[in-house]
Amino acid sequence: MQDYDLKDFKSYLMFERGLSENTVDGYMRDLRAFYDYIDYDIKKFDLAHLDTYFSELKDDGYKVTSIRRKIVSLRQYNEFLSRTKGMKDVMSQYELPKTEKKLPQVLSLEEIVKVINHIDDTTPVGKRNKSMMLLLVSTGMRISELVHLEINDINHSVSNVRVIGKGNKERLIPLDQETFHYVYNYMQNERSFFDKKNSLWLFMMNDGRRMTRENFYNILQKLVLEAGVRDHFTPHMLRHTFATTLLENHCDLRSIQVMLGHQDISTTTIYTHVTHKQIMDDYNKFHPGNAKRKL
User: Fold this and answer.
1) CA gap 106, 271 in Å, rounded
2) Which DSSP string do the residues of 92-116 spell out, in sequence order?
3) What pTM does this model have?
4) Catalytic site residue from 118, 166, 171, 209
5) Choosing from 142, 191, 210, 240, which is the catalytic residue?
6) Annotation marks residue 273 as catalytic
7) Parts of the chain with a pLDDT under 50
8) Is 171 designated active site?
């Protein structure tokens, strides 16, 4: 492997495609894993080695979603090398393996309230943690978007938050008054406790560095454990719950698409299946005909 090929491809993804840092890092991991498999010999980037590579991944128990992602990464890289280095196109022959779409897991509002109410917000740390939770619950933003918020992203005049999403695309999400006033109060008071470097980050760790996804995840897991809520409780489940709650209350699907930052509305329609499942569950549980059959 020639290292500049990966460097050039990384630059292409970042500056021409405008992909997020997390997405680019995923591409790089997939490519380095394959290069490690072929002993960093570009000549082995062929159908024979690709066939055995994907077969071994399957045998090793990799999920279909992981194999699909690796195929996409290698396909994009192969196309890039074909265009810039004249490499033979071998990846176009690979079709993505089909996968069943799993319905998003959602939380009950009772579970969310229990975790939020468990936070001791009499301290700067508690006030920060509750502000982060309220923003996630109220906006449905991704955790990666939350930890990159700056103080100027909170608009005081119209009570909304500016979010920079995937592909550096900007969107504005309204804030309810309770969330806005709570976060604004945190900004005016407790935030200075963490700001040791005169930075613009809205949320920082105790040492003044920007809050990270990993650090927030650890904070959330600690809160969930202490509150005695379910074992599996992730930041993304808050996003799913936000979308599903809006849909159940008859919010327009396209409005949800905009607030979530989905490029394609087909991604958002997965939440219609969640609510449909709830309808069927309720039907089976409460319909008189089904009730009689259970007697």
Assistant:
1) 10
2) GGPPPPP-PPPPPP---HHHHHHHH
3) 0.65
4) 166
5) 142
6) no
7) 1-4, 290-295
8) no
